[in-house]
Amino acid sequence: MRKIILALMLFLTTTISFATENKMSDTQTKVKLTTSLGDIVIQLNSEKAPISTENFLTYVKEGFYSGTIFHRIIPGFMAQGGGFDIDFKQKEVHAAIKNEADNGLKNTRGTLAMARTPDPDSATAQFFINYKDNSFLDYSSSTAQGWGYAVFAEVIEGMDVVDAMAKAATGSRGGHQDVPKENIIIEKAEIIEE
Q1: I need a surface site. Which of 61, 95, 109, 151 has the fewest CB within 10 A?
Q2: Cβ atoms of 67 and 186 closer than 8 Å
Q3: Residue 3 domain flag
Q4: pLDDT (tens digit, 9 = 90+) per residue, 85-133?
Q5: What percentage of the chain has pLDDT greater than the value 90?
Q6: CATH number of the domain residue 35 falls in
Q7: Average pLDDT in the 136-143 region?
Q8: What is the per-residue pLDDT for 187?
């Protein structure tokens, strides 16, 4: 009888933990990016990437992303946006944030990561969406070469829109390569669920 009670307690504890874990992931903040090609809904991971998530939400709440473009698109790699307006002028940003690439999240298809310069702690507003698993962008060590790019969210709806961006003709503009010849605009970024 004692073994049955212990087994039942273990089963209930596991079931409750599993239900709680699922509930936590379902309650993560979601943001809708309304673009000129359609809507993209992303789910942020504030548990594993609190700094990047808070940073991104600050820009969303300020309306910063409205009227910005995806300014760098490389099919089979990633689509980068969030820093340039439709006239290809770089927007003023807040201070850079600490790199959280050591959070265990991987640069897999459909994830969003913070874009940065060669300085690991230089991310501000720009982000990119991975077209495929890009493990070479993941954290491997706390060195300049190993820091990687901090994943903080994933696309949960509208990956077809992201894939459609990869079909855009690109060229050079303002000293940058892989720029869509026709602007792909983030018309609005809004929190749809907290």
Answers
A1: 95
A2: yes
A3: no
A4: 999 999 999 999 999 999 999 999 999 999 999 999 999 999 999 999 9
A5: 84
A6: 2.40.100.10
A7: 96
A8: 98
Give the per-residue pLDDT at 121: 97
Judged against a pLDDT cut of 90, whether residue 11 lies above it is answered with: no
Domain limits for position 123: 29-193
Rounded to two decimals, the pTM is: 0.86
Q: Is 20 left (phi over 0), alpha (psi -120 to 50) or beta?
A: alpha
Reduce the secondary structure of the chain to three states and give it as a string: CHHHHHHHHHHHHHHHHHHHHHHHHHCCCEEEEEECCEEEEEEECCCCCHHHHHHHHHHHHCCCCCCEEEEEEECCCEEEEEEEECCCCECCCCCCECCCHHHCCCCCCCEEEECCCCCCCCECCCEEEECCCCHHHCCCCCCCCCCCCCEEEEEEECHHHHHHHCCCCEEEECCEEEEECCCCEEEEEEEEEC
129 closest CA partner among 60, 42, 190, 55: 42
Number of domains within the chain: 1
